[in-house]
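Hi everyone, sorry if this is the wrong subforum. Our group has a chain we'd like a structural model of before ordering constructs, and none of us has done structure prediction before. Sequence below.
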Amino acid sequence: MKKSINSLILGLLFVTTSLSFKAQTNVAGNALYYDGSSILNFGSIDFGFTDELTIMVWVKWDTIPSSTNNWANILTMNSVNSSDDGIFWLQHNSDNSKFEFALTAGGSRSFIQSSTIVEKDIWYHIAATYDGVKMRLYINGELEAERSKTGSVRTPSYYHYLTMGAWAYNSSRLFTGTIDEISVWTRTLSVDEILEKKNYNLKEDETNLAGYWMLDEISGQTIFDNSNSEFNGEISSSMSIDTARRVQSDAPIYSMPLPISLISFDVEFINNVVVLEWATASETNNDYFTLYRSNNAKDWIPVAYIKGMGNSTNQINYSYFDEEEFNKVVYYKLRQTDFDGRFEEFEIKSVRKEISNLDFSIYPNPCNDNAIITLDFEDSNNEEILIEIFDMSGKRLFVSGNTLFNDGNFTINTTDFSPGKYIIILYKNSQSEPEKHILVKY
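Answer:
Right subforum, don't worry. Here is the predicted structure as tokens:
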């Protein structure tokens, strides 16, 4: 594996890094429990639907479904004045044995039902979509029902209320169980997107995310919209905390897997150049890296964008050379961004400018295929100096043995060196630390 410059300096030992991977953490947080007599009303909302929508939610019955209110509601936008006058219905069929998705579009109401037979004490992920051509119903990421339908989604009126756990009309069709992680979209999510997103918390700025209720509140009457829409709801006086109470959720919602597994991130000052190196053990959905620099560890400027590998299960090594001049100390941080905009930042690293104790120069540098470079020591005081050259992967290409210098120079044949950058390390008997320099060949 690739070694950092620090590893080369500290004894030039090649160490194998052991990696351990932990299981993902359940981060479901809280959920709302309904006892079969409650309704959560968000009032009149216009999501701005055109001819596309998606609704997703996790639900779990805490009793035998058929033993409670028929047509139990999960999430509905319907009229407070009459039944079946609305925009969409995500609910159950007449005996609560199946899930049902109904939609008013193109001037008519249509519905589809799942093939799954609903049981108590089981979490189900429901996704209902419409793309202007078909309605589809997915249970746990599997397509279970679809039907042709065309036209724009009906525009809601002031009397169409968004309700959770019951109909707005007569507060009927009440649900008994637990509801978690509800999202409403103004676009049609593909099956791949449904599978990708169903087990993870969403970002507030997901594309066309029109409403998102994590239901993680621990107190108070407000149910917050975690999207940018801010469609917050209030628990009404007729629905107390006791009847629709907050409970610890055990829905299968997990922390988003890290897009990369970072092995190392090293920063070193070498011959007036900052060498930055990092390595990944695996990459998932990795678009690019950004390197930031700062003089105070507070104000950051991007200095480089490096393309990632996308997806990989092999070790990938990266490096960058920052030739910007600086005084004393400079700070760097590494940010990884994946294809959907999620990003992760890693530990800040600092580097201090070093002053050479050797009156020394390399020429020509950069060098070409003429291949002969000269290391010129202006004043070595008859001391022994060990010279080593490494490529950027940590492979040693040259070692001089201890050489006695007396105001002279030393030549090295680099014929076998490929174009690239190399690290020259000088060990002087009178110095406790070696010195590093960069050689460039083109």
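For your construct planning: The chain is about 5% helix and 45% strand. Residues 1-23 have pLDDT under 50 and may be disordered.
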